[in-house]
Design goal:
Layout (H helix, E strand, L loop, with lengths): L2 H12 L4 E3 L3 H10 L4 E2 L5 E3 L12 E4 L15 E3 L1 H16 L4 E8 L7 E7 L2 H10 L5 H5 L5 E6 L6 H4 L6 E5 L4 E5 L5 H14 L6 E3 L1 E5 L5 E5 L6 H5 L5 E4 L3 E4 L2 E4 L3 E5 L9 H6 L5 E3 L2 E2 L6 E2 L10 E5 L11 E2 L2 E8 L9 E4 L1 H10 L1 E4 L11 E4 L12 H15 L2 E6 L2 E2 L7 E2 L2 H12 L8 E3 L6 E3 L7 H4 L1 H4 L3 H19 L7 H7 L4
Parallel strand pairs: 1-6, 3-18, 4-5, 4-9, 7-8, 8-10, 13-23, 23-27
Antiparallel strand pairs: 2-3, 6-7, 9-10, 11-15, 12-13, 12-14, 15-16, 16-22, 17-21, 18-21, 19-20, 24-27, 25-26, 28-29, 30-31
Helix pairs in contact: 1-3, 2-4, 10-11, 10-16
The protein binds adenosine-5'-diphosphate, phosphoenolpyruvate and manganese (II) ion.
Manganese (II) ion binds next to helix 8.
């Protein structure tokens, strides 16, 4: 089978009389509820459950081994190859399966708020609620744009189609396969909606560097003076939470590009975690949950239909998906200038990294490549407690190219625009996970604001004796004893052992970058 067949199979599917194209939010809400896929809640949000897949399933993610991309992809456990024969045969089966459905739902829109580099996408869904998710998360076209819309990439999602590993060549019933050549994402066996948005993000991580644009797994906001801040971080480290700040306009909560013009959001919506969500702690996010928001795996009262955000019985990874316009203070379209402040968020389960520290250029490169953090409960299949992890560029599950491609681009941009980089530990303090506690959100917010407002530029600092990081000695509103990790631990000997263990893990991990990065390692890594 060649690529022409893939296109005509898709066209035939889309020409069927069971296809609903570009339904509005109320129409999709109606479809999702009347078809029994979701229920209406007291705020007008719709709530859907996703069965056993309540987070991403990285083990089931593949990229088709094809001539156009073969030599560019950084193949390995993240970017697992799959043959075009397997893809073609599964694709045909999925298309046949979708043709049998009573109804299908298609969303057409864009990824990338900068018109120069945006990608036209379409999403074909078996479920109305998934299509509502696509509508809320991707960039919605104007009427005129819709008229001329021609998809560069298509997501075909059939969660109820399950692969048979013995016959289909997958590792399980679930598959998320990207073909860069055929420009298709094929999803089956999982209902977790996040797979759709993260697939498009992976594709942007493949396409943007060719246009000299740095794709970034970060949130972004901008202050009154046009000062832009970025917050890099793996899932659950605080990108969405910390970028929602009443005093600053939100650019986006998860995926951005940085071009010669500045930064832009890749998406048109946010995907916030809502476990333990309260209006008091996260007012912007709480209030964004209104009519048409998709609540994923949130437990609601059967009668009143009021959400209970404290209930983690379905998963720790409960989610709300809403258009960015649901947040009061935003820039629209989601574009802004060059960043002044860059924050690397890490959720350190060892409890030894300082809650905030200032990085030199070499430290910034070292920590960007290392990407040390923890995988937090629920974010990936099988993760039930924080698992320390080195996730290159704070987003390794989404990077098809070699990490150094992104790191070099970031290094150049930091130099060019003179951005100050901070490392912020939103994870544990006073002891490792199980002994200490998670850093208080209100402290993290205070520290982050101080950094963004330039208040930490000329403060007195203390050098972390293990990692060589510069720790501000005082930050107004934060108790001084939490600033230096060793002081926050009651058992100093235990701290010393943990810190040495983490420094060793950093050094071991950095070996994978070889001698090219010796200078960065020497000047930016843990002290001897
Ligand atoms: N100190 C802290 N900083 C940031 N988030 C925190 C902190 N303590 C607890 N949290 C919680 O951790 C979660 C962070 O998730 P989120 O912002 O959605 O991460 P991301 O967008 O990076 O995936 C939120 O539920 C937030 O309430
Ligand atoms: C959607 C996800 O991203 P994040 O948690 O970074 O928002 C995810 O990791 O599944
Ligand atoms: Mn997020």
């Amino acid at each position: 089978m060649n690529s022409i067949d893939t296109v005509s199979e898709l066209n035939e599917l889309l020409a069927g009389n069971n296809v609903n194209i570009q339904l509005s939010v109320p129409q999709l809400v109606e479809k999702a509820t009347s078809r029994g896929e979701a229920v209406l809640t007291s705020t007008g949000a719709v709530k859907a459950e996703t069965g056993k897949y309540t987070g991403r399933s990285p083990q089931d993610k593949y990229i088709v081994e094809e001539p156009v991309s073969k030599d560019k992809i950084d193949w390995g456990s993240v970017n697992q190859p799959i043959s075009s024969e397997i893809f073609d045969s599964l694709y045909t089966k999925v298309i046949e399966y979708l043709k049998q459905q009573d109804e299908l739902f298609v969303f057409k829109g864009f990824a990338g708020a900068d018109h120069d580099s945006r990608l036209s996408i379409q999403v074909v869904n078996e479920y109305a609620w998934h299509n509502l998710f696509a509508h809320q998360l991707f960039i919605r076209p104007t009427e005129k744009e819709l008229e001329y819309h021609a998809a560069d990439f298509t997501i075909v999602s059939a969660p109820n189609f399950k692969a048979d590993p013995a016959v289909d060549g997958t590792q399980s019933e679930t598959f998320i396969i990207v073909s860069m050549e055929k420009r298709i994402v094929l999803i089956g066996g999982t209902e977790y909606a996040g797979e759709m948005k993260k697939s498009i993000f992976s594709i942007m991580n493949y396409l943007l560097p060719e246009q000299n644009i740095l794709p970034m797994h970060c949130s972004a906001n901008v202050g009154e003076q046009g000062d832009v801040s970025l917050f890099f971080g793996l899932s659950g480290t605080g990108k969405t939470t910390l970028s929602a700040d009443a005093g600053r306009k939100l650019i986006g909560d998860d995926e951005h590009g940085w071009s010669d013009n500045g930064v832009f959001n890749i998406e048109g919506g946010c995907y916030a975690k809502c476990i333990n969500l309260t209006r008091e702690n996260e007012p912007q996010i709480f209030d964004a949950i209104t009519f048409g928001t998709v609540l994923e795996n949130v437990v609601i009262d059967a009668e009143t239909r009021v959400a209970n955000y404290d209930d983690n019985s379905l998963t720790e990874n409960t989610r709300a998906a809403y258009p960015i316009q649901n947040i009061e203070n935003i820039v629209d379209p989601s574009v802004a200038g060059h960043p002044n402040t860059i924050i690397f968020l890490t959720a350190d389960a060892f409890g030894v990294l300082p809650p905030i520290s200032k990085l030199t250029k070499e430290q910034a490169m070292y920590h960007f490549l290392s990407g040390f953090t923890s995988k937090l409960a629920g974010t990936e299949r099988g993760i039930t407690s924080p698992q320390p992890a080195f996730s290159t560029c704070f987003g390794s599950p989404f990077l098809p190219l070699h990490a150094t491609v992104y790191a070099e681009m970031l290094g150049k941009k930091i130099d060019e625009h003179g951005a100050q980089v901070f490392l912020v530990n939103t994870g544990w303090t006073g002891g490792e996970y199980g002994v200490g506690s998670r850093m208080k959100l209100s402290y993290t917010r205070t520290m982050v604001r101080a950094a963004i407002e330039g208040k930490l530029n000329n403060v007195e600092t203390e050098t972390d004796s293990v990692f060589g990081l510069e720790i501000p000695k005082q930050i107004e509103g934060v108790p001084t004893e939490v600033l230096v990790p060793r002081n926050a631990w009651e058992d100093k000997a235990a701290y010393d052992i943990k810190a040495a263990e983490l420094a060793k893990a950093f050094r071991e991990n950095f070996k994978k970058f070889g001698t090219v990065s010796d200078d960065i390692s020497l000047k930016g890594g843990p002290l001897a």
